[in-house]
Structure formats: structure tokens, C-alpha cells
Amino acid sequence: xxxxxxxxxxxxxxxxxxxxAAVEQRDHPExxxxxxxxxxxxxxxxxxxxASYEARVFGIHSAMPSREAGQRCPHAIFxxxxxxxxxxxxxxxxxxxxxxxxxxxxxxxxxxxxxxxxSQRLYGSGEEIGRRIKADILAEAALTCSVGVAPNKFLAxxxxxxxxxxxxxxxxxEKKAIVAFLRPLPATRLWGVGRVTRQAFDRAALHTIGDIQxxxxxxxxxxxxxxxxxxxxxxxxxxxxxxIELDIREKTLSREHTFLHDEKSRAALDNTLFELVEDVxxxxxA
Length: 286
Hints:
It contains 13 helices and eight strands. By secondary structure, the protein is an alpha/beta fold. Helix 4 (83-100) runs antiparallel to helix 6 (126-141) and helix 11 (217-224) crosses helix 12 (226-236). It is globular and about 60 Å long. The termini are far apart.
């Protein structure tokens, strides 16, 4: 009598939709339906932290200089970040995750991986748990999120990005269906394919994930090196063995300061640098 196969792992990736901007629109009804940019004012040096979906229509995105955002959409509403508020709402959302599974890996203030494999007897399938989480967040925080449901972390994150905002996408769990789903997607959807790797792939005529599936390993190794080739080839076939990380420790600590105008005073620069170094050192000691 053969042993039954272990149950498929079920991962969720939950990503809040335009989180900072959505909180501001929730708390300020006059902002709803309008382009909202959370970040520095457009007349100062600084960057966009988050843009509402109404602002993204104008090509505004996070890390864009605020001046450029103001030029793209002069009628946008610029709001300074309110991190204590966002952290409070984030804690509320993560407490909702904890109702469904203890295996929660926070990636940032507004997104997390959840392993719900063992939660299905209590709460239903991965899709049902995703719908429950979406409904709880909407009812209790008046915000929307997008959820990907899949057999591993890479595919779950791919799913949450697939139909934003307010989406829920269940990816295939069967190997052949996973490979077929991935084939037409651009190679940039693979983790680790940034601007430099994309350019290298373009030179090698590797434009889609299907191209990477079909490419000889030797070709991939010549393009990105042996380690990255093995990693990206595995992802191209939907393979990702990473588990939920419950004890994530900071690997770096940093502080930054943006001057509103060009600063030429050596004394002012030294004073600012001293304050930044002191703050980082204090946090390291703690």
C-alpha cells in the first residue's frame, strides 16, 4: 500500500493597495477619487513615497522626484507621510493575518507572506482564506488589498501583482499548468531580473520566461553566471523552496537626510553627518 502524497503547500502573498495613499484617502473623504501623492511637496527636493492609483495614471510612481511628479500632475494632492498612523494601521492588518496562521513573514509595512497549509481544515481553501482576509481588512480597516494564492512564495507574489488593485488570483498548483502560465510572461517578472540582467537577457534574445525555460543552461550561465543561472531557471519553471521566515533580523541600519537646497557649508554638512552617525550608532547599540 503506497503512502499518500503530502498535501500541497499553500502560500498567500497579501499586498495592500497604494497603502499610504489609501490610508490618507480613507481618512480624508475630500481626497477620494483624486490623485494623491504621499511624499515631499513638489516645490522641494524629495521623492514620492506612494502614489494613489489616480496619480499613477499620470506616470507617477514611488521614488520619483516630487518635482517631476508635480510637473506630471499639477493638480495632485501632496501629503507628507504620517508614519505613526501607517504603522498603527499596519499592526491592525497584521493582527488579521495572525487569525488565520501563525506563519506570517512581513516583507514591509504593507505586505506579507502567509503559509496557510495547515489552516485549511479550519478556514477552507487558500482561496477562501484569501477572501476572508480581504473581507476582514475591508470591514475593519476600510482598505483593499491584493492576494496571490500559490504553492510557493514566488508564485504567490506573482499572483498578488497580477490583478491589482483589489485582486485575488489563484495560480495553478499542477506542474504543467504552472509552466504554461509562466511561459508568456516577460523575463522581468522573475525575482532577481533588474535593469542590468534584463539588458543582458535582451542581448541574448531571452525576452520571456518561456525563452528562459527553453534556453540551454550553458547559455544562461554565459549570460548571468552559474549561480544566477540555476536560480533563475528554477524560478522560470515555478520552483521555489523557500519557507516562511519568522525571525527576520535587520542586516543593515541607515539614516538619510535630504537638504531642501544645495548645501555648501562644510560646518552644516559635518553637523548633519554627525547627527546621522549618532542616530545609527544609538540604534546599533540598542
